[in-house]
Specification:
Blueprint lengths: L7 H9 L6 H4 L20 H7 L10 E5 L6 H11 L3 E6 L5 H16 L5 E6 L6 H5 L2 H5 L3 E7 L3 H4 L2 H5 L2 E4 L5 H13 L12 H11 L3 H17 L7 H7 L12 H15 L3 H13 L4 H16 L6 H15 L4 H14 L5 H14 L61 H14 L6
Parallel strand pairs: 1-4, 1-5, 2-3, 3-4
Helix pairs in contact: 10-12, 11-12, 12-13, 14-15, 14-16, 15-18, 16-17, 16-18, 17-18
Family: Belongs to the AAA ATPase family. RarA/MGS1/WRNIP1 subfamily.
Organism: Streptomyces fuscichromogenes
Keywords: ATP-binding, Nucleotide-binding
Length: 451
Amino acid sequence: MEPDLFTAAAEERQEKDPTGSPLAVRMRPRTIDEVVGQQHLLKPGSPLRRLVGAGSGGPAGPSSVILWGPPGTGKTTLAYVVSKATDKRFVELSAITAGVKEVRAVIDGARRATGGYGKETVLFLDEIHRFSKAQQDSLLPAVENRWVTLVAATTENPYFSVISPLLSRSLLLTLEPLTDDDVRGLLKRALTDERGLRSAVALPEDTEEHLLRIAGGDARRALTALEAAAGAALDKGESEIGLQTLEEVVDRAAVKYDRDGDQHYDVASALIKSIRGSDVDAALHYLARMIEAGEDPRFIARRLMISASEDIGLADPNALPIAVAAAQAVAMIGFPEAALTLSHATIALALAPKSNSATTAIGAALEDVRGGLAGQVPPHLRDGHYKGAAKLGHAQGYVYPHDLPEGIAEQQYAPDTVRDREYYAPTRHGAEARYADAVEWTRKHLGRRRS
């Protein structure tokens, strides 16, 4: 069976019975000029304009386009507009339900149509990040030979989720979240348009503002909530959508966080950077987003343990034990109580004095080792516990520090290649001040720094 098409018959059915489809579908723009937001992609001469123009005798558009953006920003809408504006056969597949078999069927159909001087084919592939590498590979010949014009959509970072050969053959277009003004204009159109609510109800300003907060830049979410609230208001015999009615039908705003996508990394990064910046309130905000989205608490705890060493280190030696204890507690108790433990650790780390000296110290040492400065261990430090070691000069001349009054011996420990390197550069933040004094004293008594 051939994949779904945006056919004239389907459009005619929708026009005859506009109430049979969800409001978000009914209000889908019919032309590129009706598209809300994304003006940076719709300027004259832009790739999308060229793609639309190619169907009416304009210059050829790109052979493959990847649309990357959050949900509800218009990826499917733009694909639909292309289907309406061009004179090309339009086929839609979803990577959730389709596989290589369906892709090959579309490609074979496109080759037959092109070879028989029929219409060229635009293939819209939604959720392309759900395709495996092998499935994405199956698209390459069609894209490279221009058997189809591929318009693929993804909510995940394509540099992580789309194979390099396909990415290099495609034009990547980034869609931005809609602004409140964009969504507001869409809501006003939906309230009055014949395809929408036909002025059946009004939307007071306070309800509109709450609806905008719920939407969070997602047009589909805004229209879905509007449709539900309008239905509830009409069932009550009310002529406008009250704030209480909206709150009744929309229990809570869905958190804009996909724990399987790139926002997983973005929000986690923001949490750690807020802790590093000592902004406890921002850190708690991102922690709450991760918790509310159902993030694995063990993942959060692991990030906190890393932060304790990476950004705090010896400025507060208690930071790492707190983070480790939190990780152990989280593993034992799980959510919802683990939220308290993670909050405890996040606050402690955000407010702790900061030092990245442990991070820079090991980074500098690793750089030297990777650069080939891994010299020979000094003979007096080598193992002398096996037969024949003394004949090799191993462990000869080693001074046992505990035999000396101050517990430190002036002798060489590092290989000759890095003898004068000083990797650890302590700050004087918090408790690390005492380590700064200690390292200065020890280097002096090791003969590496003159008094």
